[in-house]
Amino acid sequence: MFEENELLSGSLNKLLEEDMNHVTKPICTRFPPEPNGYLHIGSAYAIHINYMLAKKYNGYFNLRFDDTNPLKEDIEFVNAIIEDINWLEYSPGERIFYGSDYSDEIFQAAVTLIKNGKAYVCELTPEEITEYRGTLTEPGKNSPYRTRTLDENLELFEKMKNGEFPTSSMVLRAKMDMKSPNINLRDPILYRIIHAHHYRTGEKWCIYPMYDFAHPIQDAIEGITYSLCSIEFKDHRPLYEWVLTNLNIKNAPKQREFGRVNLTGVVTSKRYLRELVAGGFVDGWDDPRLPTIRGLRRRGFTSESIRKFVDQIGIVRHQSTVDYAMLESSLRNNLKLRVNNVMAILNPLKVVITNYPDDQSEFLSIENNVENPELGQREVSFLKALYIEKEDFMEAPVKGFKRLSPGAEVRLKGAYFIKCNEVIKDEQTGDITELRCTYDEETKSGTGFTSRKVKGTIHWVSALHGVKAEIHLFDKLFLDENLLKDNEKEWIEKVNPHSRLIHKDCIVEPSVKNAKVEDKFQFIRHGYFCVDKNSKEENLVFNRIVSLKDSWRNEVK
Predict the structure, then answer these.
(1) CA-based, 20 to 30 A from 376: which of 189, 206, 300, 483?
(2) What's the pLDDT at 316?
(3) Helices of type H across 147-262
(4) Is 128 helix (H, G, I), strand (E, B) or coil?
(5) pLDDT tens for residues 313-350?
(6) How far is CA 200 from CA 109, 204, 211, 265, 534, in A?
(7) pLDDT band at 483, cuts 50/70/90?
(8) pLDDT at 75 over 80
(9) Is 320 helix (H, G, I), strand (E, B) or coil?
(10) Where in the numbering of this chain does the tRNA synthetases class I (E and Q) anti-codon binding domain appear (predicted)?
(11) Strands 417-425 and 409-412: what pairing?
(12) Which of 270, 297, 298, 336 is the catalytic position?
């Protein structure tokens, strides 16, 4: 499925290679999503790094849900994450784990720290804890509860577990260094009280560990060798190592960081994605305009194109931004030799060929893919009435216009030369409603040489056999690519009101009539399209995945 790549080249590879000289067990990595939302393109990048490292060294890859916050998590997200990872073909198989299943072990680890004088129960309010923590330039100060005895801390922590205190009334904190230049080490919170139903453990627990405490313990239980995470967790590494050291974990896992990758014009923050969904700015987590895996899949991206995209990025050591065009290019390269080229009319203009017999029709052979002859040919019906794109006709053509105009000739793709002789207009609006044309029988495609030449070729669809369709075109979801730097604006000021344009009265050639959801095509000149999940036999719906890289002149032959 995957080819050998240079994913682990550079400084991180050297670091891992040095580490592995001291590793005495199989390599094991993990992807630890919190089930409070759907995976996005950034998630795919993180999954790819962990999966490929395990694969390179014939190791193991775990999917572990970081489900230690009952206020945000749901089985809906668990199931969606598993489905998306399998669709991306990074399947963990049976190696799917849940952090909540280790609740007893994590609780006992906290008890061990208390007994060793490394943790204490604190009753400062959340606001007071923040105040006592200090700032980047000022040290923190000790909590007045820091000097509690071991017995008192053990008793209070047990009562916390038994539900004897209200939510947020007290926490368990690590006893570290309130003067540390790293704020993460200023007596961080290890456990907090949350009285809420947990989707997996029910009401068994009312105290839940913080990620920074639970994570290294979960890694150790699973035999993880490398906790690979994004660069924002670098300052958390000393806490990760402190937990493992003070719990006397042998052959402890190692945390190593890679750079976070952003895409131009795309938001991958779960918080922002939730706001967009909840606010109705998009149709749901699978809206084709979102960078969620569900959204990209519905839009028409293939799992192969996403994997290739993240593989091309490689491992970066610092935060970086990648042009969205790189993702689109990966998709084009993946589809260009695999899908059929079909003719679709987004803005139909009727053409009647006056010298074509009324009772005559014929089938013309057209190649399915101009770049891949192996996909064969298809038969397309041709008769007197057909549709072309409105933009392919200009009554008063500008200089350089090479398509149809009064008295001018063009070739219909795979068919004949036609000449426009008459323009029919609506008497009230003056809009062009029909063109009357003649065809030259001697210019049929594929039948030999004709001395006459035309400069333009346009696509068309039979008026009788064409299939009606609804076609969705997409633009950037946001008006400003730097929206994360501008937190003052409301979403309504950031979202592009024209990010989706719907064409309802489109005509597509009949070869797509039996297309199924997620089937993909190249619509000549318009780009690559995918059948949407809302598509029905009587009303086909297509999403444009991406426009064509080359101009239409190179696509139509």
Answers:
(1) 300
(2) 79
(3) 150-161, 211-222, 237-246
(4) helix
(5) 888 777 788 889 999 999 999 999 999 999 999 999 99
(6) 21, 10, 17, 37, 33
(7) low
(8) yes
(9) strand
(10) 457-532
(11) antiparallel
(12) 270
Q: Taking residues 18-41, what's their average pLDDT?
A: 84
Q: How far apart are CA 39 and CA 297, in angstroms?
A: 12
| Annotated catalytic residue, options 34, 222, 481, 518 | 34
- Active-site residue, 494 included: no
What is the pTM (predicted TM-score) of this model? 0.89
Strands 540-546 and 377-382, bridge-based pairing: unpaired
Choosing from 30, 192, 260, 299, which is the catalytic residue? 260
Dihedral sign, CA of 408, 412, 413, 416? negative
449 Cβ neighbours under 8 A, 6+ residues apart? none
Residue 121 near residue 172, CB atoms below 8 Å: yes
Torsion of CA 335, 341, 553, 386, to 10 degrees: -160
- Active-site residue, 289 included: no
Q: Report whether pLDDT(180) > 90.
A: yes
CA distance linking residue 350 with residue 352, whole number of Å: 7
Tokens of 503: 């064409």
CA–CA separation, 344 and 347 (whole Å): 9
> What are the chain's domains?
99-209 (3.90.800.10), 263-335 (1.10.1160.10), 340-555 (2.40.240.10)
pLDDT in tens, 515-539: 999 999 999 999 999 999 999 988 9
CB 78 within 8 A of CB 65: yes
Q: What angle do CA 533, 538, 542 make, to 5 degrees?
A: 40
Long-range contacts from 244-253, C-beta under 8 angstroms, 24+ separation: 244/216, 244/220, 246/113, 246/116, 246/118, 247/109, 247/112, 247/113, 247/217, 247/220, 249/216, 249/220, 251/24, 251/25, 252/216, 252/220, 253/216, 253/219, 253/220, 253/224, 253/225, 253/226, 253/227
Q: Which residue has the tokens 């409603």?
A: 433
- Count Cβ atoms below 10 Å from residue 536 Cβ, excluding itself: 8
